[in-house]
Design brief:
By secondary structure, the protein is an alpha/beta fold. The chain is globular.
Length: about 350
C-alpha cells in the first residue's frame, strides 16, 4: 500500500473528526528517570525508542491513525527497524502532538513553493536542551565561541526554529562580539579581521547564499575558524553542488573544511558535519534509509534512499519522520544527504543535490 495513498486517505478521514489526545503519567515518570539526553549505548537508545513509539502510537492522534491504516499491530513492533515513519507532509496540514498540554511555541517552515509546515512545541525546554547538548557533543561549550550569524532570509520571517536556536546560542556565548548580521556586514568583517588567535574560537554560521555574498569581493585567512553552512540558496543564487560550494567557501575563508548543520522545522534535534558533507547525530537521534519504491522497507548501509529520522526530542509530537531528503547511511551511523525527491518542494535545510 503506497504511503501517499495512506496519507490522502487519513486526510479525508480527519475531516470533521474529533482529535483525541491522552496523557500518560507512567511514561512521564519513566522519562524523568531515563531522560533522552542521557543515552549512552545502542541498547539504551533502542529501549527508549520503542517506549516512545508505543507512547506516541497511543497518544498522537495522527500517528495512531497512520499506523491503523497501515494495518500494523503496535504490539508486534519489537525493533526500531519495524517502526513506521510518518510522512513529513502531515506537518503541513495537521497539528502533530502527543499530549494535551498548551503549546509554548509554533515553529514554521519557510513554505517556499507551498504551504508551511507547523511544529507545535509544548515544552520548549526540550528543544533548548537538545540543541545545546548537541552543540556541546560536537563542539564543546558555547561560551568558548564568538558566534557570527548570517541568516538574513530566516530573520526576515517569523517562526524559524533555526533563528530561535542561534539566538539562544549567541546569548549563551556571553560574548558581546557575538550576534546576527543582517545588513551591517561591514561590522562583521571588522570583527573577523580583529579576531585574535588567543581570543575565543570563531564560529561563522550562515545560509549558503549569504556566506557567498560575504566572500564575493574579499578573502579571509581563518585557519582555526569554524565556517558552518546551513544549506539553501533561497532562490537568491544558482544552486551549487555541495563540493563546488564548499570549495569556494573553504578557499575564500582560508579553512580546510566547511562544516554543515542538518535540521528542519519538524525536528527538535540537529546533526552536524565537520567536513565533506558527512553528518553525525547526537545520541538521541538516528538516521535510517528507506526504499524509494517501498516506503516501509529499509535499505542496507551505503544505499541511496529516502531519509527517515528518529528524533527522540520530538517526544511531544512525533519522533519518527519520513523526510523528502535522499541520503545514505554508513556502518558507523554517519550519513550524507545527496538530494531530494523530485516532486518535493524545495525547503531550507541542506539542499545539496549531487
Amino acid at each position: 500500500m503506497g504511503i501517499n495513498f495512506v496519507f490522502n486517505k487519513i486526510q479525508k478521514s480527519l475531516n470533521g473528526c474529533v482529535k483525541l489526545h491522552y496523557f500518560c503519567t507512567d511514561f512521564d515518570e519513566f522519562m524523568l528517570k531515563n531522560g533522552i539526553f542521557t543515552i549512552t549505548s545502542d541498547e539504551e537508545f533502542e529501549e527508549l525508542t520503542l517506549k516512545i513509539f508505543r507512547f506516541q502510537a497511543k497518544n498522537c492522534n495522527i500517528y495512531s491513525q497512520f499506523i491503523t491504516h497501515l494495518k500494523i499491530d503496535v504490539e508486534e513492533i519489537n525493533s526500531i527497524t519495524k517502526i513506521p515513519f510518518l510522512p513529513i507532509q502531515f506537518f503541513k496540514s495537521n497539528k502533530i502532538t502527543s499530549n494535551n498540554v498548551a503549546t509554548e511555541q509554533v515553529f514554521l517552515s519557510s513554505g517556499t513553493g507551498g504551504i508551511q509546515s507547523q511544529h507545535f512545541v509544548t515544552d520548549i525546554s526540550i528543544y533548548e536542551n537538545s540543541y545545546l547538548k548537541s552543540f556541546e557533543q560536537f563542539y564543546g561549550s558555547i561560551e568558548d565561541y564568538t558566534v557570527l550569524a548570517l541568516l538574513p532570509s530566516y530573520l526576515e520571517r517569523n517562526g524559524s526554529s533555526l533563528i530561535y536556536m542561534v539566538d539562544d546560542l549567541i546569548k549563551k556565548s556571553k560574548n558581546p562580539k557575538s550576534g546576527f548580521f543582517l545588513k551591517n556586514t561591514s561590522k562583521m568583517v571588522q570583527i573577523i579581521h580583529n579576531h585574535l588567535k588567543k581570543d575565543k574560537k570563531l564560529l561563522i554560521l550562515g545560509v549558503s547564499y549569504a556566506l557567498l555574498d560575504l566572500v564575493e569581493n574579499q578573502k579571509f585567512d581563518l585557519k582555526d575558524a569554524i565556517i558552518m553552512e546551513t544549506g539553501g540558496m533561497k532562490g537568491r543564487r544558482k544552486e551549487l553542488v555541495r563540493d563546488e560550494l564548499h570549495t569556494i567557501l573553504s578557499e575564500s575563508f582560508g579553512v580546510d573544511k566547511i562544516h554543515s548543520e542538518y535540521g528542519m522545522t519538524e525536528l527538535l534535534s540537529q546533526a552536524y558535519s565537520q567536513g565533506d558533507g558527512i553528518f553525525s547525530t547526537p545520541h538521541w537521534m538516528k538516521i535510517l534509509v528507506r526504499d524509494t519504491e517501498d516506503a516501509l522497507t529499509l535499505l542496507p548501509f551505503g544505499n541511496t534512499g529516502g531519509v527517515n529520522v528518529i528524533d527522540l526530542a520530538n517526544i511531544n509530537s512525533c519522533s519518527f519522520i519520513a523526510t523528502q531528503d535522499l541520503g545514505k547511511v554508513y556502518v558507523n551511523g554517519t550519513f550524507e544527504i545527496v538530494g531530494r525527491f523530485d516532486n518535493s518542494d524545495i525547503r531550507g535545510c541542506n539542499l545539496m543535490v549531487l
